[in-house]
From TrEMBL:
Coiled-coil annotated residue ranges, if any: none
Keyword Transport annotated: yes
Gene (UniProt): LRTM1
Residues of the LRRNT domain: 20-54
Name used for this protein in its record: Leucine rich repeats and transmembrane domains 1
Keywords on record: Cell membrane, Disulfide bond, Glycoprotein, Ion channel, Ion transport, Leucine-rich repeat, Membrane, Repeat, Signal, Transmembrane, Transmembrane helix, Transport
Biased composition annotated in UniProt, kind: Basic and acidic residues: 250-276, 324-346
Signal peptide as annotated in the record: 1-19
């Protein structure tokens, strides 16, 4: 009786700790909000209530976020980590947050963004990476991030951003670029084209102000005429692609495919390339066929040989039998003849 009471009370105590509010935080059970702002925290508090949907951690001194920091708060919709001291994000940190819609990382010291860090956040709508030290953005944020409507990259150390990254976010409404080290050389051409089309479709953006080369410093990317960018010298991959194009158009003589190849990347090229793989397969088939045929022929030959031997033996035996039978018959007959001859003589 006492033992079970103790058990019950300890269970109650445990659940209280588990679903309770971490020290230094204010929890609102009805709004499902945990507010830990301005508390000088150096890490994400553990034992957060599992039903938390809004977690406010701004204005603290969080430097590192462990991979398991959010494994108990799977219902999170808004996560505010702004104004902390985060220097990097492990690729799996936000992996489980399937309901996250707003992620605010502004005012930290992030230098590097991995292409896996946000890749599983399929509900993510707003991603604020402004005011960090980001040197380059990945080529993609992952194929599940297509719901992003706001992306802020302003006030970082970016020199360029891949047009493919922006093209992979079809629902983008607001994109912010201001305050970076934009290089307005021939490579920025794709970004200019994308931005013009984005603004034409009603997208909202601030301006991309060039910081290099020197003669374009302080100028707006959109106001520099196309002619002035110059054409980038072909890179090694361009040459390779051109060769592949030449090869396919020569060997397949399909103008549609070749045309597609010009615009598509690696994926479309792999469709057009001549397929070297079937050859070993058919070779293997041929070898198998030869082997099987050989075995079957061998068996048939052996059977024929056996039949021939058997036939010969049978023929020999029957011949011998007939000969014996004949000779015994002849003896009989000659005996009878002899008898009848003797009788006739008598
Ligand atoms: C950022 O957080 C610090 C405390 O860590 C605070 O003193 C400062 O005012 C905050 N900055 C802003 C802009 O809120
Ligand atoms: C991120 O937080 C800052 C304040 O810390 C705020 O000004 C900004 O609007 C927030 N960004 C988003 C996308 O909500
Ligand atoms: C992610 O980036 C790495 C190199 O940083 C690259 O090898 C990989 O292909 C990228 N993944 C995707 C899905 O783009
Ligand atoms: C966008 O979000 C919806 C749910 O709100 C989800 O079903 C869908 O898969 C998401 N789209 C992408 C591209 O991940």
């Amino acid at each position: 009786m006492k033992g079970s009471l103790l058990l019950i009370s300890s269970v109650i105590l445990l659940t209280d700790v588990l679903s309770g509010c971490p020290p230094k935080c204010l929890c609102n059970r009805f709004l499902k909000t945990v507010d830990c702002r301005n508390q000088g925290l150096v890490e994400v508090p553990s034992h957060l209530p599992a039903e938390t949907q809004i977690l406010l951690l701004s204005n603290n001194r969080i430097q590192k976020i462990s991979q398991s920091a959010f494994v108990d708060t799977l219902a999170l919709k808004i996560l505010d980590l702004s104004n902390n001291s985060i220097t990097g994000l492990l690729p799996g940190t936000f992996k489980e947050l399937q309901h996250l819609q707003i992620l605010n990382l502004t005012k930290n010291f992030i230098e590097y963004v991995d292409n896996k860090t946000f890749s599983s956040l399929s509900r993510l709508k707003e991603l604020d990476l402004s005011s960090n030290n980001i040197l380059s953005m990945p080529g993609t944020l992952g194929k599940n991030t297509g719901n992003i409507t706001l992306l802020s990259m302003k006030h970082n150390k970016l020199q360029k951003v891949d047009r493919l990254l922006l093209e992979s976010l079809p629902n983008l409404k607001v994109v912010l670029f201001k305050g970076n080290f934009w290089q307005c050389n021939c490579q920025v051409f794709g970004l200019k084209l994308w931005l013009e089309s984005f603004l034409y479709r009603g997208g909202i953006s601030d301006s991309i102000i060039c910081s290099a080369p020197d003669h374009r410093k302080g100028k707006d990317l959109l106001r520099i005429p196309y002619e002035l960018y110059g054409i980038c010298p072909p890179t090694a991959s361009d040459v390779h692609q051109a060769n592949a194009l030449h090869y396919t158009s020569e060997h397949k003589s399909s103008p549609k495919l070749a045309h597609h190849n010009e615009h598509g990347g690696d994926s479309s090229r792999s469709h057009c390339e001549p397929k070297p793989k079937p050859r070993p397969v058919s070779l293997r088939h041929a070898i198998a066929t030869v082997v099987i045929t050989g075995v079957v022929c061998g068996i048939v030959c052996l059977m024929m040989l056996a039949a021939a031997v058997y036939g010969c033996a049978y023929a020999a035996i029957t011949a011998k039998y007939h000969r014996e039978k004949n000779s015994s018959g002849k003896e009989k007959r000659s005996l009878e003849e002899k008898e009848s001859f003797e009788r006739s003589l008598a």
